[in-house]
Give the backbone structure.
Amino acid sequence: MVLVTGTSRFLGGYLVTRLAQNPAIERAIAVDSVSPSKDMLRRMGRAEFVRADIRNPLIGKVIRGAEVDTVVHASTLQKAPKSGSRAAMKDMNVIGAMQLFAVCQKAPTVRKVVLRSASVVYGCSAKDPAQFTEEMSARRRPPGGYARDTLEIEGYLRGMGRRRPDIDVAILRLAPLIGPQLTATVGHYVSAPVVPTIAGRNARLQLLHAEDALAALECATVTPVAGTYNIAADGVVMMSQAIRRAGRIEVPMPLALFRSVGNALVGSSMRLYTDEQLEYFRFGCGLDTTRMRSEMGFEPRWTTMQALDDFVRAMQTRRIIGPEWIDRAERTLTAIVGGNGAVASPSADVMSMTTPDRGVVER
């Protein structure tokens, strides 16, 4: 019996869909305080949906009544609800997780708890290593509420694991997601017609395709996995490369003007980015995934570059600077200089980033 929280959102909903299609799962229960869309409910198939708030004692009755043995917690909010505040977000995230883990600790049938965590726990700064291992921590306290909530939730889950050593605890720290079905932070940012960036910075982005995120969560749910794992795709892409690959225009500017001028260029969406997201756009974050492969036995199907390309292709982005404009500019410049030397085109580095001998994996 598997219970999944946060099923009105992408990861939780589609994870239940996968589990419901798995014949090894006897029963799948979807829980959220908000009902999923009709299309998502249809996709869930034989799974049962229970509308319940994990801060409510009703969640205990659901777990005990259904004799749930595996709980997947995927309902942590990244932003405050539209009608709420930061205090409301913290209450839903931290207090909700505390209540859920307390119920799991008391339930005799629970044998595993899987937490969907995130790489935001490592923070982003100029002093960061090239790759964070699971034993490392942030070089300075992360500025955003989501990162602080996630750190607290991880701490409460480890505490429950110490009190109930017979319960396997799996924490998956997912890299920022991207994919054709998901309008996530990085995809939303690089797909703006004009993308403001910070002068002198070129963030190293290590992403995770949404399909791989779901596969990793399913793997942690149905296999005997315990511990903390970084989940990310192979390779990195620089922010400037990602913008060019999406056919957009990069506008570097001083840090002091990033929000104000960026808001004028992009619109009100700049105000929607949280502090940790803006830090990620500035510095990026790399994850060591050795443990993911050696201990968890999970191998992502998409590299970072392939995941980005899949998003760009699905969104059918129209390049602001077309290749014909670049060719015309090259010919004009060559005629002016009067030489036969090759002139490097802005698209040259884009083409050179294609991974050799490995095409995009079909879903």
